Amino acid sequence: MIVIVDERELVTNGYNSLFDREGVACAGFRSTEFGEWVTSAPDEDLRSVRAFLIGDCNEGSISPRQLRDRSKAPVIALSEQNNLENTLKLFESGVDDVIRKPVHIREILARISAIRRRAQEDTGFTQIGAMRIFMDGRDPEIDGQPMPLPRRERRILEYLASNSGRRVTKTQVFNAIYGVFDEEVEENVVESHISKLRKKLRERLGHDPIDSKRFLGYRLIV
């Protein structure tokens, strides 16, 4: 899930629509609402956040450094001012990157992936058996051959891979893919997506790489 903070509802709604087209959940806040949410949200909800995008907010209302006390997700400033002084000021506040608008949604996602790769010091993909699972929106590969997947199934596979070795619950998967505030979609849709994903992976791999246990959740296995 991507969290965007901006005082203008038109902006947050616009980003929500654009990210949704890429199969990425997005939640929008005004700065005061965001402050209340981030201090009270359960750890499980915050772990579902892929990145925080900070747009037009009241000055001093958001501290990226304090935000990191609760989350390791990248903090990116969206700037409408094309000048060096403002860019340096934003970096000094503690953000991980500054993106000047207008910008394509795919560039934002690519920058988020790059920041996360640097933080994790990895190669940008997770190798699990014959599966190579990328974290930048590319389809996974099996034995070096691309395996096209619908966006939701690809995001679920990415989320399972990013938690390799750990079980994740259905709620955690739902929050990561649809966002913690999506009340229009039933949580059980996760089971449907995973069922379809398992069938495709089983056909390519010859076995089911998604281990599931009732009440405990899912994890990828070799």
Automatic annotation (TrEMBL):
Transmembrane segments: none annotated. SUPFAM superfamilies: C-terminal effector domain of the bipartite response regulators (SSF46894), CheY-like (SSF52172). One of its GO terms (molecular function) is transcription cis-regulatory region binding. PROSITE patterns: OMPR_PHOB, RESPONSE_REGULATORY. SMART domains: Trans_reg_C (SM00862). One of its GO terms (cellular component) is protein-DNA complex. Residues 1-116 form the Response regulatory domain. GO terms for biological process: regulation of DNA-templated transcription. Residues 123-222 form the OmpR/PhoB-type domain. Gene3D superfamilies: 3.40.50.2300, Winged helix-like DNA-binding domain superfamily/Winged helix DNA-binding domain. Residues 123-222 bind DNA. Keywords: DNA-binding, Transcription, Transcription regulation. It comes from the Bacteria. This is DNA-binding response OmpR family regulator. It comes from Aminobacter carboxidus.
